[in-house]
Amino acid sequence: MGIQIDVVVDYPINDEVERVLGLAEAVGEPVTVTFMWEGREEAERAVLVPAATLALWEHWAPTAYPTSSAGDESRAVAEEPELAHPAEFGAFTLFRRRVGGRTAVAREGVVVAELLHPDEAHWLQEKARNVRQGFMDPKQKAAFEEFLARQASLDDQ
Q: How do strand 92-96 and strand 3-6 relate by DSSP bridges?
């Protein structure tokens, strides 16, 4: 899915993070990122999805991503949600949501992308693609119905 980039984040202000955020915004495709936050042992993987791409996926996805699955229940109970303090990376500010695990990425007060869990990003992309492939807009549907009406019936053939 999209581009794969690994980023090591050592300090709150880091131009490497700003470059990755700018890259995702410029290419308009999801970017898979691995963060090594200072003071944490485990790496955090996320998919940085440009706002327009996420809006398109959420438009076509028929339902919301399930918030918990059987395997995640013990992990969700063990982890306390982090406080939602914004973190600034150059021109970008990250706003982590306490619920849902998403992080909004804003530049000059406008959300330009969101960091999603890789499973959620993949699920949204697949659901959106499947629904969109089965959809005909009204003009296309009318033209197709007209085409079918002009066809000879199977009995006449």
A: unpaired
Long-range contacts of 36-45 (CB under 8 A, 24+ apart): 36/7, 36/8, 36/9, 36/10, 37/9, 38/9, 38/10, 38/11, 45/117, 45/118
Largest CA distance in the chain: 76
pLDDT in tens, 44-74: 888 889 998 898 888 888 777 776 554 444 4
> What string of DSSP letters covers 48-109?
EEEHHHHHHHHHH-SSPPPS--GGGHHHHHHSPPPP---EEETTEEEEE-SSSS-EEEEETT
